[in-house]
Backbone:
């Protein structure tokens, strides 16, 4: 998930997504430990997305919130 997509979400949506990603990460870590993981790179992607969400939440708390980039053609 890209940072611009995360910034477009409301605070509640981000919290819900964060909870969902943390649950998925727990499941994937368990699968990895058991040796039954299909895509080990997914763990890395989920960890990065969690970090992005937490960073954007913190930016808002500090009043450093950035605007999502608009793409123009």
Residues:
């Amino acid at each position: 998930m890209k940072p611009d997509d995360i910034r477009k979400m409301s605070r509640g949506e981000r919290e819900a997504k964060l909870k969902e990603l943390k649950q998925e990460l727990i499941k994937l870590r368990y699968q990895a430990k058991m040796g039954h993981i299909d895509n080990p790179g997914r763990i890395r992607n989920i960890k990065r997305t969690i970090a992005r969400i937490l960073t954007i939440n913190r930016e808002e708390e500090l009043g450093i919130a950035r605007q999502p980039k608009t793409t123009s053609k």
Summary: The two ends are 22 Å apart (CA to CA). The mean pLDDT is 90.
